[in-house]
């Protein structure tokens, strides 16, 4: 999967929010394909700014972070396999395991740091899992290229 085009989101409550400009289709393990719609709002890999030098939120980590955020916020996904479509509800552990798999796929040379990212979401992700929800894009403006 290539890096999706994103743009900075104007007037958002945080300065690290971005809008995905094209839908993203990805394979959900062996179950089939999932689509993240264009207009989805993400912060890439959620990393505190003081740690960006060691754990950058963008670049090779954008797609894993974006998909992980989407899984946390949606709690279920519509999976398409052939002509069949069905809804798959998953656990936080499923989302975190897929995050680690994507980290290794997109940044295979940083396996230790990938595993640290995974351990951090396992240790601290529970609170976000409980409160996470999709952002309503109509409340904000998209930035210009």
TrEMBL record:
InterPro entries: Phage_CGC-2007_Cje0229 (IPR010767). This is DUF1353 domain-containing protein.
